[in-house]
């Protein structure tokens, strides 16, 4: 029965790929045994309650092997039907790479290699932190593993190496990676591009390394996973040697990596594996086998946990109530709590942001995060000391100089549930985080990315550290809210929006330099994306549209233009994303005359032409000099902007 159950995975995956005439059969055929052993003997999930908080998390980092995951989830009893498999890679059905919230049983959107491993590191951090906060003697209410299947390609990506390094440093012992080591990648043999000693490499990174010589040896795989689970001091990397395209004529070659094997090859494979069934035909005895080994076993684990939770609630009512608020993810920011910050007259928005984090951390114990070795500059620092092996309750995560992994780890912590998570960096290095930010938007998860040093205002550090195109680039990502606040009021508002968001990630983009607080900035305006901060007096001669520190600059331009007889409106637009969600009526009320609007921002002009006929920006790289000199060099003064307005309007 065991071999038949494994072959059921193989043929469901191969049949789906053949029908789609697209996909990656090699990993399905080679990794099916390890996946089977993991699901049937170790993975604790309740397929009837897929969001059970204490379930084990399984991440297919090698997302191109989605046929493997969908077959497993179908056989295990998730809501993945045979029709879903027959419609693999078709619109509205099982997508080519796993997508979170799209297909039941998928814990993360994977595909870009290495991201899944980094997500899993985040999940393991979240589990260990929540366990430290809520577990009591005899009540391990948060107690689960994070499992990963990855391939050779995953381990060549920089994001994976960054994440593996941090995981080893933090001794995330409940993180277990099964490495499908088949020595083949798309362009040919792995040896063409990679020759590192896995045992030495992973041991040096602080991981327990375990080797399984035969990927079809279920007993050896089982022993390896049990050994990994017994290690309370390290994460575990289990290298399992497999044969890509197992039992096909293409076995062991790159030809079987990313293309269907076709009907003739599949028919021969059926003979080789003694599989007597038609495409997509699975005998009832195999469904019963998975029902017993995955579904019923998982439901027993759930019932045991559920009973423990009832006893926990009776014995630790305060902790239970707090855990429920964490799980329910309802996060409300009371603006009264932050009132004193909005009264600050002049300060860098990065400083205001840091004070928001400090204040909210006292009343919201589920707020956690940190920066990529930049907390002194970004002020994005968590509370309660540094998170470490010896202080799992610490809420400041030292990500180190690992921006790419930080973004993916933040996503993994958010995906785990129970926490509101932020990561901080210099804005120019959002480029290193772009894949993770994009995936957060694609997954509809409310990760928070805090970026400081938002413009040429960085000054002496020069063009390598002065963002130009980053705002336009991030604003172009669907379902990403980019908020660039003008002052203290708008910074507080940005955090409220970010932390109360449920389905949209937020980037908060902040200044290094001090900015003056403005009289009319407010949360309601920021929540609408754009609003009037200074009205015209009688007739509307034109509009100055700006974001961030340039709103204060626009106010100075207005004064100059007033002296020249121009009646000007100033509009703050901290969030293009929020403004686009407003009614056309509101948009027209705020920007009634786009043909007489000048947008102002110290960065790329590209994203502003949807709202303004003219844009005063910077479409070249920056320069190294003191801040005030850089502004003069780029003619970013109130006088020059006023002259430009008069020239065009």
Q: SSE layout and pairings?
A:
Elements: H1 2-20, H2 25-41, E1 57-60, H3 66-76, H4 82-86, H5 115-134, E2 146-151, H6 158-170, E3 175-181, E4 184-185, E5 188-189, H7 198-204, E6 208-212, H8 218-230, E7 236-241, H9 262-272, H10 284-315, H11 317-328, H12 339-342, E8 346-348, H13 349-363, E9 367-371, H14 375-378, H15 403-416, E10 420-426, H16 430-443, E11 448-452, H17 470-475, E12 481-483, H18 488-500, E13 506-509, E14 514-516, H19 523-527, E15 531-534, E16 542-546, H20 550-563, E17 568-572, H21 576-580, H22 584-590, E18 597-600, E19 614-616, H23 627-633, H24 638-648
Parallel strand pairs: 1-2, 2-3, 3-7, 6-7, 9-10, 10-11, 11-13, 12-13, 16-17, 16-18, 18-19
Antiparallel strand pairs: 4-5, 8-14, 15-17
Helix pairs in contact: 1-2, 1-3, 1-9, 2-3, 2-8, 5-6, 5-15, 6-15, 10-11, 13-18, 15-16, 20-24
